[in-house]
């Protein structure tokens, strides 16, 4: 037994947990850290906040112990030890990490370099990191070359133009692409700072794209994407735009409303519906999607470990009318954890459900068309233009399914993780992936 942190004894045996190492590092107990490392304590396991032991080390001597034991100073996750040290003002740790090879040019989940997290004003640490970048011929600015092969999160295609928008770094960076004669980034726009921005959500013919911020819904014109307009008094949530771009459906926390994209005025909401014969919407997730003709709305719901599909008709008076709910027998902790799509003819609704995979429903009746099991937490879906094939994007690549039966037709794994897929007749199918924006051939 060896004396541990907070006065307790640490048994240097096989049952020492990662919690012990995180606690020892956080309390600054170097002796306890040495003892735990001697037992083979895991250096890559994260705590409840997603941090490794090195990412919470405030003492440079303890950080040095962890690195000597094999903790990597260069990581590929949402942050890095250098980002953490700079963000929390642990200057001595940051200096030591730089000496041990930490990369001052790495970007965190919001696209920030370590030096971007320093307070405004002169800083010797900022200058040291800038010198290191200059020495290696690198720039602190996010460049087109870096973007072209960098991770893209979502994609929308401009109606009638060979042009697309993608997001990077949780929506803080917006990239405009040309699609002909080849796919190439044209413009990079920093549109947020350390807050999520979801989107872009576009339409078949309209001039707008929509984004959901933390507190508001933002609209941008395709013709002037740098300019943004916030819809007044419109709550944020999961977004879907009508095919003509005139209406925006917003779902969240047991609520659904349809608003005018010009004025923000509410055109319809779940309050239109007689709740006497309807159980309502989810609280964990309310994901809407318009049918191709704009006359129907499908909503994927999650609540308390279960999911269901709600289909609503949009009446001539603009009000919503409940058509049906689809609820299947399901394992605990099932949820709508990805996209929901109508087929081009509106006859099928495909939805990503964890842990089932792809669930296909006949939109007119609510009957099950087919289910297809895929081992992935989340996924994105997109029908081909003829409606015969469904592309399913996951961290493993793209799986092609027969849209009528759900049977596999093939796979594409050369582009890495697929985060989003979009289709338009004039430019085909595009995938936002971990290695850039790519055209899928099917």
Automatic annotation (TrEMBL):
Designated name of the protein: Ankyrin repeat-containing protein
Keywords: ANK repeat, Repeat
Species this chain originates from: Kibdelosporangium aridum
InterPro entries, sorted: Ankyrin_rpt, Ankyrin_rpt-contain_sf, WD40/YVTN_repeat-like_dom_sf
Domain of life: Bacteria
TM region(s), chain numbering: none
Keyword Endoplasmic reticulum listed: no
The ANK repeat ranges on this chain: 21-48, 77-109
SMART domains listed in its UniProt record: ANK (SM00248)
């Amino acid at each position: 037994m060896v004396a541990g942190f907070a006065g307790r004894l640490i048994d240097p045996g096989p049952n020492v947990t990662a919690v012990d190492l995180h606690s020892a590092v956080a309390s600054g107990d170097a002796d306890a850290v040495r003892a735990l490392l001697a037992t083979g304590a895991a250096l890559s396991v994260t705590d409840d906040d997603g941090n490794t032991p090195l990412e919470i080390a405030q003492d440079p001597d303890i950080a040095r112990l962890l690195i000597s034991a094999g903790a990597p100073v260069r990581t590929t996750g949402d942050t890095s030890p250098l980002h953490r040290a700079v963000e929390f003002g642990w200057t001595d740790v940051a200096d030591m990490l730089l000496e041990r090879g930490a990369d001052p040019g790495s970007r965190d989940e919001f696209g920030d370099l370590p030096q971007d997290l320093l307070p405004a004003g002169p800083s010797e640490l900022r200058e040291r990191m800038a010198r290191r970048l200059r020495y290696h011929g690198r720039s602190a600015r996010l460049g087109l070359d870096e973007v072209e092969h960098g991770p893209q999160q979502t994609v929308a295609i401009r109606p009638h133009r060979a042009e697309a928008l993608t997001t990077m770094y949780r929506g803080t960076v917006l990239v405009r692409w040309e699609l002909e004669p080849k796919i190439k980034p044209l413009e990079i726009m920093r549109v947020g700072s350390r807050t999520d921005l979801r989107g872009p959500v576009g339409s078949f013919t309209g001039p707008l794209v929509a984004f959901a911020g933390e507190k508001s819904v933002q609209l941008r014109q395709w013709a002037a994407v740098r300019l943004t307009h916030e819809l007044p008094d419109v709550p944020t949530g999961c977004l879907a735009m009508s095919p003509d771009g005139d209406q925006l459906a917003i779902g969240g926390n047991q609520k659904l409303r349809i608003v005018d994209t010009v004025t923000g005025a509410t055109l319809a909401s779940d309050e239109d519906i007689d709740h006497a014969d309807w159980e309502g919407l989810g609280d964990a997730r309310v994901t809407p999607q318009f049918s191709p003709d704009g006359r129907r709305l499908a909503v994927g719901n999650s609540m308390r470990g279960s999911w269901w599909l709600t289909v609503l008709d949009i009446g001539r008076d603009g009000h919503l009318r409940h058509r049906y709910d689809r609820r299947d027998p399901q394992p605990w902790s099932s949820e709508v954890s990805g996209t929901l799509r109508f087929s081009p003819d509106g006859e099928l609704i495909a939805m990503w459900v964890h842990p089932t995979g792809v669930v296909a429903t006949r939109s007119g009746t609510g009957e099950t068309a087919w289910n297809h099991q895929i081992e992935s937490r989340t996924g994105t879906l997109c029908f081909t233009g003829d409606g015969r094939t469904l592309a399913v994007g996951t961290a493993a690549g793209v799986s092609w399914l027969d849209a009528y039966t759900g049977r596999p037709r093939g796979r594409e794994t050369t582009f890495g993780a697929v985060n989003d897929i979009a289709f338009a007749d004039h430019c085909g199918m595009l995938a936002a992936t971990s290695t850039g924006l790519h055209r899928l051939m099917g």
